[in-house]
Amino acid sequence: MSTLKVKDIMKSNVITVDPQLTVSDAAKIMTNNRIGSVVVLDKKMKPVDIVTDDDIVGLIAGGKDPKKLKIKDIPKKRDLITTSPEDDVLKTTKRMIKTGVKRLPVIKDGKLQGIVSDKEILITAPELLEIMSEKLRTRVEMVAQPDQHISGICEECESYSDELVNLGGRWLCEDCREG
Questions:
Q1: Domain coordinates of the chain in residue numbers?
Q2: Is 52 in contact with 74 (CB distance < 8 Å)?
Q3: CB–CB of 176/156 below 8 Å?
Q4: Is the pTM of this model over 0.85?
Q5: Which residues of 6-21 are buried (b: 16+ CB within 10 A; e: fewer)?
Q6: Over the stretch 91-123, which tens digit does the pLDDT of each residue have?
Q7: Residues 166, 144 contacting (CB under 8 angstroms)
Q8: CB-based contact 147:140 (threshold 8 Å)
Q9: Phi and psi at residue 50, in whole multiples of 5°?
């Protein structure tokens, strides 16, 4: 079996934004395109950051005004983590688990080629499901607030969900919590 490469599963149509754009406008772009992140490009069209829906929710919860705050003024949590089109999917999956990110811009020669998320990995490489579930096991070891939502594998139906909640020591998706 040949090794699955990031270029084989990445989305090549990436929505990008300018650092001068307001957070509110970035959120509208994400909503209109039904995506969970946008890649920030500098004046030379080089990827410099990624803004996710989680970042925006955190800013609003922290009392920031998304209509006044610009993308460039969002505090960076870490340097931009990327992957290459030639990286194998297993290596990229492990990097995502280690760093706790769901999406990686795909960069070649300093230019944005695409984006890969945990969803593409799970859809195209279901054999990596066990590896992605390491992410859940790692998070289970952390102390979770009763109303905290995490991403991972539901312990009841074994489906992937971004909305797992810890009930009675088990991480359950919305359907299993209600059922």
A1: 6-124, 127-178
A2: no
A3: yes
A4: no
A5: bbebbeeebeebebeb
A6: 888 888 788 889 999 999 999 999 999 888 888
A7: yes
A8: no
A9: -135, 135
